[in-house]
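Try this one yourself first.
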């Protein structure tokens, strides 16, 4: 069989009512793509069946093949271990009865010995294309669902990760007297499936269950199913976005707020006041048919009345009026519309039609639409805050794109509060023209962007999303929170492997494979943005823990273990050095309980000793920063209850501990820079002056503090995940 023969076979089958390829033909295709298959004979005549059994040698496996029955086992069309001709004859009769004589032929196979069974397969996902499946096979496939997914095409790192991901991965090692699985042979199966999927788009599903591991570790496919479906023509991305134009929307030299309002609380007023309340250097024009003045500024009745140029139109007028703006915007050579207005696709069919009409008109006019139904954008690097948030985060290196506007503005507020710098923000809205993929690709080529953070609920083009993320991740971390990540139900599928899939599982697989770091809580988005923008990547997953209090050290150790981080034993050398610093009753192990914290030099000295240690790749320190909150409360209690206490002395003491914490945060920055290892702090106690990041002029890195060990460990784990992915995909 040749490639051309396979395509002809597929074409012929698609012309018939049958949309599958018989098992024996499927195995011929597998063999052509280097997938090891069991030897077998296909026969219809009973005498030839018996002859084939004799030549194969008893015991044998007998299978009935039917065009209309995809799953033979469920219909009793598979018999294993037939020991003589009489058993074969009985099996043939019973199968014909079970299938109501609807059997096209019989397959005769030798019994393949082996105690381990796996499943391998492929299905076409409507968003991400061909997905390769691997996991525990046989009768356990659907019962235990120990299955992993990867988007085709596969590379060696992808296949190794599949082996590592399954819960039953120990079965790949030597097992009950049988040799370890020959992984290179197993990879041939997965690679073959990937190549078949790429070569023949009309193959919808492939199911190989089981793949039996023979005693010598060799895998062999003893069953196979191929399901066909004529490939539908997929629409190319409807609008090609000029990334330079998209980037320029964040650097407008002039904006026109169309729908400007004098009424506080209305969009036309919020956007105006937010923009004007900062030090934005560009020109701001107001447009409203009523004219007059708003905030003391002239209001133009039409954008055409504006004498100067307009780079960005910020539009808040009703949805049905927006399309009428396009001719005037074209005359003014406006390149971008920030379309705040809702009432489009999100409201139903009529809104969707209106959105499509508007988008087509804008595209033909050479105008880019951001939105509609967006909360706006911001670029702190030019003090441009044109969104619904009364939040003004400092300039930074984290890009934040959110499909939920409310989520976005709340995260902006938190970023401002915690001192987390933002490169740019966009509420992507309905993504009529500019999609999540466009934003990723635009900020991929942006030198100021260090981390891309996304909140998404859906993607319009899964394949492009996957490819874009994989490319961006090689240079910059991509962090994603997926809304609606609970199962959306299994797909209607003919194969076992296809039936195991869901939108969520495939999306998660695409993220893992493309290097995306997924989080489960909104705050984790900014936690990871904080560490990625402020700390060096760890070279490994070994963690040294320094704590005030043994219990928190134990808890943090547990959290590290649960997230795959190692807490190694201290070396003899570092124990000896710490003995010279700490009192005799310190923990003498990792975590390091520094106990004698009264001397302010002790935490600094111990931290540096841990960073010097070549046995760790990162340090988490707990309870040293934030102690001032407890001390200040103690002082307030003393002042309220003891009139003899000198208030000036008490204030001096408060100032002293505040100074210690400031000195400590600066020292942490210096040590991070010196040893190029990430240092993550846990404050526990916070107040109005507490924040996540502390800067020191002249230093690349920052001090990072979280209010709980959970958040610190998760952030470090995300960094380790990303670093591991980069190592295997460089």
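Now uncover the answer:
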């Amino acid at each position: 069989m040749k490639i051309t023969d396979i395509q002809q076979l597929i074409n012929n089958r698609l012309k018939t009512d049958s949309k599958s390829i018989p098992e024996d033909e499927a195995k011929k295709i597998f063999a052509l793509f280097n997938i090891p298959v069991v030897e077998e004979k296909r026969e219809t005549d009973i005498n030839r069946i018996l002859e084939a059994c004799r030549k194969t040698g008893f015991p044998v496996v007998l299978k009935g093949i039917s065009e209309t029955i995809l799953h033979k086992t469920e219909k009793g069309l598979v018999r294993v271990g037939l020991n003589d001709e009489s058993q074969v004859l009985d099996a043939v009769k019973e199968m014909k009865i079970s299938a109501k004589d609807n059997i096209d032929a019989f397959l005769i196979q030798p019994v393949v010995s082996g105690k381990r069974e796996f499943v391998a397969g492929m299905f076409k996902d409507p968003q991400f294309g061909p997905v390769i499946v691997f996991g525990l096979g046989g009768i356990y496939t659907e019962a235990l669902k120990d299955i992993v997914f990867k988007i085709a095409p596969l590379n060696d790192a992808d296949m190794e990760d599949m082996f590592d991901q399954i819960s039953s991965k120990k079965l790949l090692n030597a097992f009950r007297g049988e040799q370890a699985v020959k992984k290179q042979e197993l990879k041939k199966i997965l690679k073959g499936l990937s190549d078949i999927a790429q070569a023949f788009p009309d193959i919808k599903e492939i199911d190989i269950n089981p793949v039996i591991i023979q005693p010598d570790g060799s895998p062999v496919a003893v069953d196979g199913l191929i399901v066909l479906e004529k490939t539908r023509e997929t629409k190319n991305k409807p609008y090609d976005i000029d990334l330079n134009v998209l980037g320029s929307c964040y650097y407008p030299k002039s904006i026109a707020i169309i729908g400007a309002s004098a009424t506080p609380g209305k969009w036309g007023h919020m956007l105006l006041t937010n923009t004007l309340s900062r030090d934005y250097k560009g020109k701001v024009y107001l447009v409203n048919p009523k004219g007059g003045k708003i905030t003391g500024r002239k209001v133009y009745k039409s954008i055409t009345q504006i004498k100067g140029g307009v780079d960005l139109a910020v539009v808040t007028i009703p949805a049905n009026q927006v399309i009428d703006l396009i001719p005037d915007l074209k005359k003014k050579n406006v390149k971008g519309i920030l379309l705040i207005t809702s009432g489009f696709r999100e409201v139903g069919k009529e809104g969707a039609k209106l959105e499509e009409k508007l988008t087509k008109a804008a595209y033909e006019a050479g105008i880019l639409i951001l939105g509609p139904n967006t909360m706006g954008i911001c670029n702190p690097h030019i003090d441009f805050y044109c969104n619904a948030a009364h939040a003004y985060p400092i300039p930074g290196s984290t890009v934040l794109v959110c499909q939920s506007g409310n989520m976005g503005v709340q995260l902006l507020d938190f970023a401002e509060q915690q001192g987390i710098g933002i490169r740019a923000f966009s509420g992507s809205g309905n993504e009529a023209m500019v999609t999540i993929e466009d934003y990723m690709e635009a900020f991929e080529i942006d030198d100021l962007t260090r981390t891309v953070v996304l909140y998404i609920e859906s993607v319009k083009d899964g394949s492009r999303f996957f490819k874009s993320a994989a490319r961006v991740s090689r240079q910059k971390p991509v962090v994603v929170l997926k809304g609606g990540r609970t199962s959306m139900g299994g797909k209607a599928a003919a194969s076992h492997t296809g039936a195991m899939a869901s939108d969520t599982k495939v999306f998660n697989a695409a993220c893992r494979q493309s290097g995306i770091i997924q989080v489960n809580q909104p705050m984790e988005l900014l936690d990871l943005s904080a560490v990625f923008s402020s700390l060096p990547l760890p070279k490994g997953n070994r963690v040294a823990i320094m704590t005030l209090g043994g219990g928190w050290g134990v808890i943090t150790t547990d959290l590290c273990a649960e997230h795959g981080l190692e807490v190694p034993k201290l070396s003899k050398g570092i124990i000896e050095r710490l003995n010279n610093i700490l009192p005799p009753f310190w923990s003498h192990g990792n975590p390091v309980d520094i106990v004698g914290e009264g001397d302010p030099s002790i935490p600094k000295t111990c931290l540096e000793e841990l960073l010097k240690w070549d046995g760790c790749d990162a340090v988490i320190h707990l309870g040293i920063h934030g102690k001032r909150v407890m001390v200040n409360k103690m002082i307030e209690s003393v002042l309220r209850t003891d009139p003899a206490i000198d208030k000036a002395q008490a204030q001096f003491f408060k100032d002293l501990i505040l100074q210690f914490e400031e000195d400590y945060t600066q020292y942490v920055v210096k040590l991070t820079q010196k040893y190029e290892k990430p240092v993550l702090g846990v404050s526990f106690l916070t107040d109005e002056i507490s924040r996540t990041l502390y800067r020191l002029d002249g230093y690349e890195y920052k001090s990072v503090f979280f209010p709980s060990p959970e958040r610190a460990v998760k952030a470090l784990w995300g960094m380790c995940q990303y670093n591991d992915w980069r190592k295997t995909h460089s």
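Discussion: The chain has 24 helices and 31 strands. The radius of gyration is 32 Å.
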